């Protein structure tokens, strides 16, 4: 699938691009069912090997951990064929190629979940504040909705054009994994609700966030971060498994 010039221009201007219904329903259903199984068996070796993470405690409760409080999985493509096939899905990779060039690898992947009522906010951030890939425009995120994502259940919000700010100064929120910018024009943020199967491609420097899920349904997404082979990846360690060659 090739992007039109208007789509390319939109990505360049705004820092993100929405492509509706890119992933067929049968693929979305398969990923959703597998995530449900991993959540249901959250204490199993299968779930541990894909880096299961739980929501932090809320509402004054202590150490609440169940199948209904799972926040994320990471490194799915290394162990799970369903998610590896998603990362290699040709129409998706075609778009990544249009946006950052050929000779691609998968830098990282994760399933980001917002459980019903428990799903917490992901504060404003830039992906490359974490990744530190050089140059910034040779790493890109593809965020694929596995459920309809709305402002009520935690869709993405973007500050259009903020990728042109460069890497802004971030600070760590104590007792969390979150890095947040010291300054951001949060009032300019726009909600980007999408239906299941829709993908959002965004620049590594665009400021974005997602609010908490206060509904009774899940908001799940499969997220792939692609990097051009010419880029430097200083945060990768020699002991890390090789990156998956994509194209």
Explain what this protein looks like in three dimensions.
By secondary structure, the chain is α+β, with helices and mostly antiparallel strands. It has a single domain (5-56, 64-245), classed as q2cbj1_9rhob like domain (Jelly Rolls). The chain has seven helices and 14 strands. It has helices at residues 5-14, 25-40, 45-49, 76-79, 81-87, 90-100, 127-131, and strands at 16-19, 53-54, 70-74, 104-114, 122-125, 139-145, 156-158, 170-172, 179-181, 190-192, 199-203, 208-210, 219-228, 244-245. The longest helix is centred in the N-terminal third of the chain and has 16 residues, at 25-40.
Structural descriptors:
247 residues, alpha+beta, Jelly Rolls, 4-stranded antiparallel β-sheet
Please render the helix and strand layout as text.
Layout: H1 5-14, E1 16-19, H2 25-40, H3 45-49, E2 53-54, E3 70-74, H4 76-79, H5 81-87, H6 90-100, E4 104-114, E5 122-125, H7 127-131, E6 139-145, E7 156-158, E8 170-172, E9 179-181, E10 190-192, E11 199-203, E12 208-210, E13 219-228, E14 244-245
């Amino acid at each position: 699938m090739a992007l039109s010039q208007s789509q390319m221009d939109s990505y360049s201007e705004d820092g993100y691009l929405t492509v509706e219904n890119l992933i067929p329903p049968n693929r979305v259903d398969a990923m959703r069912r597998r995530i449900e199984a991993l959540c249901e068996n959250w204490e199993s070796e299968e779930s541990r090997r894909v880096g299961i993470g739980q929501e932090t405690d809320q509402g004054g409760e202590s150490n609440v951990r169940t199948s209904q409080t799972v926040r994320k999985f990471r490194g799915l493509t290394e162990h799970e064929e369903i998610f590896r096939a998603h990362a290699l899905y040709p129409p998706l990779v075609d778009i990544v190629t249009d946006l950052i060039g050929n000779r691609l690898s998968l830098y990282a992947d994760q399933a980001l979940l917002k459980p019903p009522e428990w799903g917490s906010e992901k504060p404003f951030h830039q992906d490359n504040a974490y990744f530190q890939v050089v140059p910034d425009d040779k790493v890109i995120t593809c965020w694929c909705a596995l459920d309809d994502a709305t402002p009520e259940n935690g869709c993405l919000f973007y500050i259009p054009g903020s990728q042109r700010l460069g890497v802004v100064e971030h600070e760590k929120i104590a007792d969390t994994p979150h890095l947040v910018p010291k300054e951001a024009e949060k009032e300019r943020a726009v909600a980007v609700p999408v239906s299941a199967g829709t993908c959002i491609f965004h620049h590594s420097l665009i400021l974005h966030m997602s609010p908490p899920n206060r509904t009774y349904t899940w908001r799940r997404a499969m997220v792939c971060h692609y990097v051009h082979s010419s880029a430097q990846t200083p945060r990768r360690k020699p002991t890390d498994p090789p990156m998956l060659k994509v194209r």
